[in-house]
């Protein structure tokens, strides 16, 4: 089906952060730097875990999946924004907008579900340590990740199919730097009651559900840690959760801040700036949180860097040989 026949338009205008020409190079440089740091940092985590057999455990298996999702998460929005700034164009096609919205919701859902699965992993490790390897076997770990993908795909497909039924007439300017679901619904000139109901119901179910699961897991973890007699044992048990707890706090606090700010103010510019926190800043900080607060990851990164350096020296030596 031709998108234009259904909507009356074939493209949208992404207004971004500012229309001032003198600010565009600054915005481009800032977001390009953050994007490269995000991709490089998360890719480094994946390579370090993959190259170190000591880290082939459920905890780091979920971490590599989270790092991969974070790379994809930022890649759905930032490259298009950078391209628009570079080409001095604000245009995104109707099909491109729908595609961007679909993948953005997909990877947002995956982030939430994976953080919940990681909380369950920490719950089993601390509350049932003797049965950890039996419970968190490779089959279950793979199944949990598969379920996360299935739920996220269906959630994203539901919202995308709901948006496809809407008509867009004359107002084609999106006051954001990417095609966000709520903005799309607000721009529609057809009835959006059903879309709003589905959006709010899904938000309650898919945002509150995982959050409650995380809170339940950590309530059991805290209860088990309090039952440990030695202070050293308490510290060791809690230290395995600090990185994950920091990432969860950062993700949910920034997401909540965005929606509270959007409810408190009608300023689209304020909402756009606030969205940067969970769409760009959080995925960028995740590798630093895990690498700086996790001894195993730091050691794996050091071994990986030494191995990479050694391979580079060997390659250079072989090239010099006659």
UniProtKB/TrEMBL annotation:
Record SUPFAM superfamilies: Family A G protein-coupled receptor-like
Protein's job: Putative odorant or sperm cell receptor.
Keyword hit for Protein transport: no
Swiss-Prot/TrEMBL keywords: Cell membrane, G-protein coupled receptor, Membrane, Olfaction, Receptor, Sensory transduction, Transducer, Transmembrane, Transmembrane helix
Similarity section: Belongs to the G-protein coupled receptor 1 family.
PROSITE patterns: G_PROTEIN_RECEP_F1_1, G_PROTEIN_RECEP_F1_2
Major location (coarse): membrane
Species annotation: Mustela putorius furo (European domestic ferret)
Protein name: Olfactory receptor
Annotated Gene Ontology cellular component terms: plasma membrane
Annotated gene: LOC101688676
Location within or outside the cell: Cell membrane
Membrane-topology descriptor: Multi-pass membrane protein
GO MF entries: G protein-coupled receptor activity; olfactory receptor activity
G-protein coupled receptors family 1 profile domain residues: 41-290
Record-annotated membrane-spanning stretches: 26-48, 60-79, 91-118, 139-158, 197-216, 237-260, 272-292
């Amino acid at each position: 089906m031709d998108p234009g026949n259904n909507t009356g338009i074939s493209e949208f205008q992404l207004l971004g952060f500012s229309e001032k020409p003198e600010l565009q190079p600054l915005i481009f440089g800032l977001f390009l730097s953050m994007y490269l740091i995000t991709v490089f940092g998360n890719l480094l985590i994946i390579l370090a875990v993959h190259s170190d057999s000591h880290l082939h455990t459920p905890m780091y298996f979920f971490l590599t999946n989270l790092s991969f999702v974070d790379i994809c998460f930022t890649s759905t929005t930032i490259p298009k924004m950078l391209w628009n700034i570079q080409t001095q164009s604000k245009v995104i096609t109707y099909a491109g907008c729908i595609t961007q919205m679909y993948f953005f919701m997909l990877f947002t859902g995956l982030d939430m579900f994976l953080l919940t699965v990681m909380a369950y992993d920490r719950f089993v490790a601390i509350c049932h340590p003797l049965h950890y390897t039996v419970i968190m076997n490779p089959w279950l770990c793979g199944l949990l990740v598969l379920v996360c993908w299935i739920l996220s795909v269906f959630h994203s497909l539901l919202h995308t199919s709901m948006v496809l039924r809407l008509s867009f007439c004359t107002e084609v300017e999106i006051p954001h730097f990417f095609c966000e679901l709520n903005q799309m619904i607000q721009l529609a000139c057809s009835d959006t009651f059903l879309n709003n109901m589905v959006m709010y119901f899904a938000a309650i179910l898919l945002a509150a559900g995982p959050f409650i699961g995380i809170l339940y897991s950590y309530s059991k973890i805290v209860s088990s840690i309090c039952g440990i007699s030695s202070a050293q044992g308490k510290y060791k048990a809690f230290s395995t959760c600090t990185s994950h707890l920091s990432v969860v706090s950062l993700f949910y606090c920034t997401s909540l801040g965005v929606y509270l700010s959007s409810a408190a103010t009608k300023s689209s510019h304020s909402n756009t700036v606030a969205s940067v926190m969970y769409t760009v800043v959080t995925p960028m900080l995740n590798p630093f949180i895990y690498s700086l607060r996790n001894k195993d990851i730091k050691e794996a990164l050091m071994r990986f860097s030494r191995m990479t350096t050694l391979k580079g020296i060997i390659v250079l030596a072989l090239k010099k040989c006659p």
